[in-house]
Design goal:
Helix content: 40-55%
CATH class of the largest domain: Alpha Beta
Distance between the termini: 10 Å
Strand order of the largest sheet: 6-5-7-8
CATH architecture of the largest domain: 3-Layer(aba) Sandwich
CATH topology of the largest domain: Rossmann fold
Oligomer: single chain
Number of domains: 2
Largest sheet: 4 strands, parallel
Number of helices: 10
Shape: globular
Length: about 240
């Protein structure tokens, strides 16, 4: 991989949903790029998102075609201003991605596929899954994990509901409470007892309160892993 002025760097389009997760993804790309591209350098990046309330309404209505429509609107706008490929720093709405992949103007990096490949490279065999109730109840991760022969474990229903509440009522607003950190740690400890050798931080806001230093299990930080995959994809040898 060539770097600096000799590299052609593609334009990253970010299909954003909630602000905190999208911001962390953006900051990660920008902060880690100089090690590859030189001082102060990072790829061209464009972000688009409709009002978060538009997504939340459709999620609450179980309207996945509506979620997909919002994603496609962002994709079309990002394509129109020159993005070369797309990422979505929101695990939950990946459930709607299959509905628009064929009609999308640009290719996507799939966050669950990025995480699954990282787990496989680390030799991890069984992963705990955390995230919103929409995400944890879905096949977004099970599908990508099964392709690589990786097992998984979901938290119990009560734990899923409480995690969802913390995400949607606290983390997306940038509210970080010690008791919520402790709750996540307790759930991850349960997943460890269930035989998991790592935990997927399957909401892009979870890494704002859980990390490798305070988790009972090794973490798969979906936000930063997606950012790094996008950075690698963006740097193209001439």
């Amino acid at each position: 991989m060539e770097t600096g002025s000799q590299a052609k760097v593609n334009h990253i389009g970010i299909v954003a949903c909630s602000a905190e997760g999208a911001a962390l993804c953006y900051r990660t790309i920008c902060s880690e790029a100089p090690a590859l591209l030189g001082a102060h350098a990072h790829p061209e990046i464009s972000i688009h998102t409709p009002p978060f309330a538009d997504y939340v309404k459709r999620l609450n209505d179980d309207d996945w075609p509506g979620v997909a429509g919002l994603m496609l609107e962002s994709a079309n706008k990002l394509a129109a201003i020159g993005a070369d490929f797309l990422i979505c720093p929101d695990n939950t709405i990946h459930k709607a991605l299959p509905l628009i992949e064929r009609s999308s103007p640009l290719p996507w990096l799939h966050i669950a596929q990025v995480v699954a490949r990282e787990a496989a490279q680390r030799g991890q065999k069984k992963l705990g899954l955390t995230g919103t109730r929409w995400l944890v109840d879905s096949d977004v991760y099970p599908e990508k994990l099964s392709e690589l022969g990786i097992d998984f474990l979901r938290p119990g229903v009560e734990e899923r509901d409480q995690i969802d509440r913390i995400i949607m009522q606290e983390l997306v607003y940038g509210i970080f409470r010690p008791e919520s950190v402790a709750y996540f740690q307790a759930v991850i400890d349960q997943l460890k007892s269930g035989g998991c050798d790592a935990v997927i931080l399957g909401c892009t806001e979870i890494p704002l309160i859980i990390n490798q230093d305070n988790s009972p299990l090794p973490v798969l930080d979906s936000t930063r892993l997606l950012a790094r995959a996008a950075l690698t994809r963006a740097i193209v040898a001439p």
